[in-house]
Design a protein that fits this description.
The chain is of the alpha/beta class. The chain contains nine helices and nine strands. Helix 2 links the parallel strand 2 and strand 3.
Length: about 240
């Protein structure tokens, strides 16, 4: 499929050996894709049935990369460098956009061309609804806002840098905290943008995530020593594992 002449939005999906999850993502893309939305898929040279699924859905894919990478953020960075849209969204294999995800997004981007647009997400576990996640961007010194529900102007990646690949789980948090510290504008879309699979990588490696987040907070000067109560909670949680 030829790429749109002037897409306002580039959506990037990264995947590796997650053919079933990719089907879910592709089904959602079919429902929201228009001529001015570019779709980029970066596959890490999957060895399962992913190549077959990619071939079956090539009509909705504008740019496809299938080669080995060094991790999640290496794959994302490849997609960002290939994107033609002035706005970039990320939806990983297994996650999915809701049908109203892009409703009013183009107009909002036109009125706020240099703002990160973000909404909320629906967390799903074992195929069933779990909860709704939505945090104010002002909470970034403490925690990450819902990454799959965010749309970032490409110029921000060009000006402030892409994802730091030394972080394997929480590079999205480092990147957004970097944007926040630079004083960029965030605009809430008041929309539940997507469904998020709680069984993903960032959810399964909790201890590594916590270590990376602590390092990132120290890097950006926002780290606060946990109080005794928080330390006790962490200790109990570790013992229960």
């Amino acid at each position: 499929m030829a790429k749109p002449d002037s897409p306002f939005l580039s959506v990037i999906t990264i995947c590796y050996n997650n053919a079933e999850g990719l089907k879910t993502t592709f089904d959602s893309i079919r429902k929201i894709k228009t001529e001015d939305v570019e779709y980029i898929v970066v596959d890490g040279a999957s060895t399962d049935s992913t190549p077959e699924i990619l071939n079956q859905n090539k009509d909705i894919i504008d740019i496809l990369v299938s080669e080995k990478d060094s991790g999640i953020y290496n794959a994302i960075n490849k997609g960002i460098k290939l994107a033609h849209g002035s706005l970039i969204g990320l939806i990983h294999a297994g996650d999915f956009y809701l049908e109203n995800a892009l409703l009013g997004l183009k107009e909002l981007h036109q009125s706020h061309p240099e703002s990160i647009l973000y909404g909320a997400l629906k967390a799903v576990k074992n195929g069933e609804f779990d909860s709704i996640w939505g945090f104010n961007s002002k909470s970034l010194p403490e925690k990450m806002i819902p990454h799959p529900a965010c749309f970032v102007p490409k110029c921000f990646y060009e000006k402030y840098g892409i994802y730091n690949e030394t972080f394997k789980i929480a590079a999205d948090y480092e990147c957004f905290l970097r944007f926040y510290k630079a004083g960029v504008s965030f605009v809430f879309t008041d929309t539940i943008v997507c469904g998020f699979n709680l069984e993903g990588v960032s959810q399964n490696k909790t201890e590594q995530t916590e270590k990376e987040v602590e390092t990132i907070k120290k890097m950006h000067g926002v780290f606060k020593e946990p109080c005794k109560k928080e330390k006790l909670k962490k200790l109990v949680k570790k013992l229960l594992r």
